[in-house]
Each structure stands twice: as structure tokens, then as C-alpha cells.
Amino acid sequence: MLTYSIFFGLLSIRWVHNDMENQYNLIYVIEGACVFVLILAGNLIYSFDFITSKIQKIWKFVFPIVILDFILGVVIDSIYGKHAHNASSELKSIALILLVATYSPTFLAHYKIGYGKEADNDMPV
Q: Which terminal residue of the chain, N or C, has fewer Cβ atoms less than 10 Å from its own Cβ?
């Protein structure tokens, strides 16, 4: 999961850069960047099994934000993205499948942080 976390972090930088290239509203770009920071933090927390009861409580709030941001990003990109109107339906479908596949480990990790795993204790050993 650590290798995936680093890979996803690098992809996140590219995606934020892409949002700026698409000339999206600055508030939207900053919000997306903040969510990517939360995603990276969650992936690293899960990678190092650093799930405490406090983190678990916070991630019950963060996990839905990650899901909503993903959905919002897909909708915004499909409506306003640079290549949204030039791509065929088949290509858009393949891109969506690849995007969901890329995000799936993140969704699972963040779900397990908030809901799936009991925190072992308040201080990791």
C-alpha cells in the first residue's frame, strides 16, 4: 500500500495541475488539493497501520468527503473538462473505469480507517 500511496500522491499532483490547466475556479482547485492531501494522509495512515480511535473518529467524517469529491470531480470534468466534448462515449467509459480502479484502494483504505477496523489503542506500539 505504501508504493500505491506514493504513486497516488504523484498522480494527485498531476490531477491538480490538470485542474489548473482547465482553468477551473481557484476555490475548486484549492478544495481538490486539500482533499488530495487528506487522501495521501489517509493512505499513509493505513499503510503504516497508525489507526487510533481519534483518527478513526475523524475519518468517519473524512471518508464521505473523499467520496463526494470524487463524484464532483467526475461530473465537473465530464461537463467542463478540456477534452470532455471531443471524446467518444466509449473512451469516456474506459476512462471512468480506469479512474475507479485507480481510486479503489484509496476508497477501501479510507473506509477501513473510519469504519472497518477497530482502533487497537490510542498510542501505536
A: C
- Going by C-beta distance under 8 Å and a sequence separation of 6 or more, which residues neighbour residue 39? 8, 12, 66, 106, 110
Question: pTM score, two decimals?
Answer: 0.84
Q: Which domain holds residue 24?
A: 2-116
Q: Which string of DSSP letters, residue by residue, matches the chain?
A: -HHHHHHHHHHHHHHHHHHHHTT--HHHHHHHHHHHHHHHHHHHHHHTT---HHHHHHHHHHHHHHHHHHHHHHHHHHHH-TTTTTS-HHHHHHHHHHHHHHHHHHHHHHHIIIIIS----SS--
User: What gap in Å lies between CA 19 and CA 81, rounded to an integer?
Assistant: 8
Q: How many domains does the chain divide into?
A: 1
**pLDDT per residue over 96-109, tens digit each?**
899 999 999 999 99
> Is residue 125 a part of any domain in this protein?
no
